[in-house]
Amino acid sequence: MSTYVRPALSLVLLMTLVTGALYPLAVTGIAQLAFPEQANGSLVRDERGQVRGSALIAQEFKGDGWFQSRPSAGAYATVASGASNLAPSNPALAERVKGDAASLYQAQQGPVPQALLTTSGSGLDPHLPPEAIAYQLPRVAAARQVSEARLQDLVDEATLHPLIGPPVVNVLALNQALERLAPLAGH
């Protein structure tokens, strides 16, 4: 019996050491050397060095003076990241979308872009298509008392053109640039 148990236990201990300690340490070390910014969360800091968020995680912005992110199925909490799993036929989803559309709707702008009404697969996508940002321009320009043309320049500067896929805008980075351009009173 010990001829089978001893090698089995030795193999379990060896694999635990390799896969539970050595491999994670090696990957972490390589990531810290090769990609330190990404390995540490892609943190976004303000002028004073304060962490304001991550370039990889959406945040909630409240008020007319901010560009709004996509809705989040998990209230922007990373622990609860994921889709809501509500089917398109679910009345709760229809009610949420209807409520969001009513609060964001501006008659002169036309229908609210879908990206401002639907959550992403993770519930934390920090990017919006430029069309969803453009829909918000008049509201933000009025609240910040900045011309729409100047804000459009800011959006153009913040628009990312990935190698694959359509252009996107990181809402946190855009709002930080917006705050540098035209700070909100009392903020």
TrEMBL record:
Major site of localization recorded for this protein: membrane
InterPro entries from the UniProt entry: KdpC
Keywords associated with the record: ATP-binding, Cell membrane, Ion transport, Membrane, Nucleotide-binding, Potassium, Potassium transport, Transmembrane, Transmembrane helix, Transport
The keyword Transmembrane appears for this protein: yes
Membrane topology annotation: Single-pass membrane protein
Compartments where found: Cell membrane
Pfam (any one): KdpC
Subunit structure: The system is composed of three essential subunits: KdpA, KdpB and KdpC.
Role summary: Part of the high-affinity ATP-driven potassium transport (or Kdp) system, which catalyzes the hydrolysis of ATP coupled with the electrogenic transport of potassium into the cytoplasm. This subunit acts as a catalytic chaperone that increases the ATP-binding affinity of the ATP-hydrolyzing subunit KdpB by the formation of a transient KdpB/KdpC/ATP ternary complex.
Similarity comment: family membership: Belongs to the KdpC family.
Name under which the protein is recorded: Potassium-transporting ATPase KdpC subunit
Organism: Pseudomonas fakonensis
Lineage: Bacteria, Pseudomonadati, Pseudomonadota, Gammaproteobacteria, Pseudomonadales
